[in-house]
Design a protein that fits this description.
The protein has helices spanning 2-9, 29-38, 55-71, 116-138, 157-163, 167-170, 175-179, 184-196, 243-304, 311-342, 355-369, 390-406, 463-473, and strands at residues 14-19, 24-27, 75-82, 88-99, 105-114, 142-147, 152-155, 201-209, 215-226, 232-241, 351-354, 375-380, 385-388, 413-420, 424-431, 477-483, 487-495. With 504 residues, the protein is α+β, with helices and mostly antiparallel strands. The strands form four sheets. The chain has a five-stranded antiparallel beta sheet with strand order 2-1-5-4-3, with helices on both faces. The N and C termini lie far apart (130 Å).
Length: 504
């Protein structure tokens, strides 16, 4: 028995052996140590085991002993005891039946372990887990988890706040079906594919569908969730709501875009203005030099021959001077009209006048100023009157007729067709002159642009730009058809009755 006692005393566990009725038969040193730590009552052979226990545990343990006696099976039990120093001791009791040869109960071996440190560790880690959970639940960050099939298993308050979907509404629902749509689905699938390969994903932005039909943008990082065996069982997403940031960024981008567009517009206008100025300077210097040198030549001739010049020669020279002065006058007139036009300073004054009379007067004026170099053939079906700005329309017709004559050297005829429709009239000026190259057709209405056939023919390149603007002011349209070397047709349509707009 002493050998047995030695063995028992060297065990780390406390051993107390009782008979089937609870009387203590044997115990070891560890049992004495534990008993001392929880009670002042000493362990004694022959004492009743339950008498050693506190009031609180006595009944339970009596029940356990009865059950072990009856069932002859081991039973485990726990007890939390206060020591005399006020600390808590957690004990784990294993009631193991010791049976005789006929399976009758002979003793019950009570193996007791002090599990205080384990219990405290468990308690601490439980409270740390719950603190951590609380933190995740209420954190001001988007935190949610999905399982490996994409079903939502965690959903914190902030997720509910920004999407409007409460936790119970999304739990066990597929993230894809509930919260994202369109192309974001494929982004999410891509993320999950990487997660299932145990890879983490940093910073992906998703537009989330909100309960009210709106959209919230979140920037998320994803990490794999693993089980105790290290297998990936899903993903945890953590991130921020960047809806406002995204909207702010987009509005800034729009602002920058608009400002850039406005700036480009201003730059383009400025560039055009510089180009136009350059074209004007080169054309004006060229166009003014020719008449000025002719005037200079004529006046020098008169001066040199003042004493001998006859009246015939003098008249001839004076006519040359007058012709060139009149041409320069015409050029300046064009420049002035153009600049008035640019500044929007042309004032429309509608009057009622006969279309036929208007056409014949303009034709007459052009024929006279071009010394009847061409025959201008007018055909008209007009009977009525026009209500429009006569001065502007005259400017248009005179410009078109002058061009037709100017650009038809060596030809004889120019045709003017007047077609009177009910609500509008058509003026068609047709020539068989040099024509306009196809690639120049859409440019000739720009100021200071002259076609390749115009090099040897005087002009500023302003006429058609004035014509175009005038027709716009009259609410009309102008088209040109032309074939290089075969002639051109300019067709003007304007309303019979002018309606004054803000220009007027
Ligand atoms: P300009 O007559 O002073 O050159 P316009 O603005 O009136 O200026 O015409 C621009 C250019 O269009 C002309 O230089 C010429 O190349 C072309 N053009 C205009 N009218 C005709 C026409 N009837 N026939 C051929 N070319 C024309």
């Amino acid at each position: 028995m002493d050998v047995l006692k030695d063995i028992l005393d060297n065990l780390n566990d406390s051993i107390i052996i009782i008979d089937g009725y609870g009387q203590i038969v044997l115990f070891n040193n560890e049992a004495i140590r534990i008993q001392k730590s929880v009670s002042e009552k000493p362990l004694e052979i022959g004492a009743h085991f339950t008498d050693l226990l506190s009031e609180e545990h006595r009944q339970t343990i009596s029940g356990v002993i009865k059950t072990v006696r009856r069932q002859k099976k081991a039973i485990k039990n726990f007890a939390e005891n206060q020591t005399s120093f006020g600390s808590t001791v957690f004990l784990e009791f294993n009631f193991v039946p010791v049976l005789g040869l006929k399976k009758e109960l002979r003793y019950i071996n009570i193996i007791t372990q002090d599990i205080t440190s384990r219990k405290l560790l468990e308690r601490n880690s439980r409270s740390a887990t719950s603190d951590f959970r609380n933190l995740l639940e209420h954190a001001h960050a988007v935190i949610f988890s999905v399982d490996s099939r994409g079903y939502i298993v965690e959903w914190n308050d902030h997720c509910a706040e920004i999407t409007g979907f409460a936790k119970q509404e999304v739990l066990s629902r597929k993230f894809c079906d509930t919260l994202i749509h369109g192309e974001s689905n494929s982004i999410f699938t891509g993320v999950m594919e990487k997660i299932l390969k145990n890879e983490s994903i940093g910073k992906v932005s998703f537009p989330l569908r909100k309960k009210d039909g709106g959209e919230a943008t979140v920037m998320l990082s994803a990490t794999p969730r693993t089980n105790a065996h290290g297998q990936v069982i899903g993903a945890t997403f953590v991130g921020q709501d960047i809806t406002e940031l995204t909207a702010y960024r987009e509005s800034l981008e729009r602002l920058v875009e608009n400002k850039t567009a406005a700036l480009q517009k201003v730059l383009k206008k400025e560039k055009e203005a510089v180009e136009m100025k350059n074209r004007f300077v080169s054309i004006a210097s060229h166009e003014f030099r020719t008449p000025l040198s002719s005037i200079d030549f004529a006046t020098s001739f008169i001066k040199r021959n003042a004493a001998t010049i006859g009246s015939r020669k003098l008249n001839e020279k004076v006519r040359v001077i007058q012709k060139h002065v009149s041409y320069m006058n015409h050029l300046l007139e064009d420049v002035l009209t153009f600049s008035k036009n640019e500044k929007g300073r042309i004032k429309l004054i509608p009057t009622t006048f006969s279309l036929d009379e208007f056409v014949s007067e303009a034709v007459e004026e052009v024929a006279r100023s071009t010394r009847h170099s061409h025959h201008i053939c007018v055909s008209t079906n007009s009977l009525g009157c026009l209500v429009t700005d006569e001065k502007l329309l005259r400017n248009v017709l005179i410009n078109l007729l002058t061009n037709a004559i100017k650009f038809s050297p060596g030809k004889e005829e120019i045709a003017v067709n007047v077609l009177d429709h009910d609500s509008y009239i058509t003026l068609e000026v047709r020539d068989e002159g040099i024509g306009i190259a196809e690639e120049e057709l859409d440019k000739i209405f720009e100021p200071f642009i002259r076609g390749k056939g115009a090099e040897a023919i005087p002009g500023t390149g302003l006429g058609l730009s004035i014509v175009k603007k005038a027709i716009e002011l009259l609410n009309g349209t102008i088209q040109v058809e032309s074939e290089w070397g075969r002639g051109s047709v300019f067709t003007v349509n304007i309303p019979r009755q002018m309606v004054l707009t803000e220009h007027g």
